[in-house]
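Notes from hallway chat w/ T.B., transcribed later so I don't forget. T.B. wanted the structure written out for a chain they're using in a teaching module, and asked if we could keep both sequence and structure tokens in one place. Agreed to drop them here.
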Amino acid sequence: MGMFIVMEGIDGAGKSTQAKMLADWFKSRGYEVVLTKEPTDTAFGRLIRRLVLTGGKEGIIDGARISHEAEALLFAADRAEHVSKLIGPSLKDGKVVISDRYFYSSLAYQWARGLDLEWLIDLNRFAIRPDLVILLDLPVKESMKRINGRSIKSEFDKIAELQRNVRENYLKLAEMFPEMRIVNAQNTVDDIHRDIVGLVEQELLE
């Protein structure tokens, strides 16, 4: 079996950057790496972006709202395809899988939207548990500063109060899931990368 590593954190924490840097680090050491993300680029993932994340006349930020339960089910359906078609087969082939977000995002965000945490956990029981989850922890004030510099903002990005609740939820989840490790996302990009590599070496490679 390969290794499965996930990057989590509120918007603006640097997940995509650190996922790519870690993928490059593994590749430089001869590992075969699959770099992926959620929502995925599948039909389910594209539907989620259209309805939930990117807005537009079909997006929920413009009034065409779907229920939070339906939203959670959409994310879970996308994840089921992700696990079945990519994550599971890649791990069986001995590859290193690095995902920018996973089911912990659903727990943190949809719990913040008022859904029951145990229901969300049950909904995602099919999901393969990662070997290591890196929680890039960032204060919401810094998150909003970084997000405001982006040209495109998701609905999630626009609501600071939601981000505060999500950050609190992530920290609670880190106490519940032993695979989660917290990294200070206020440091420089290179320092964060070094912290992550240190965790990978300590937790997975020793």
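Follow-up for T.B.: The chain has eight helices and five strands. Might be a good example for the class.
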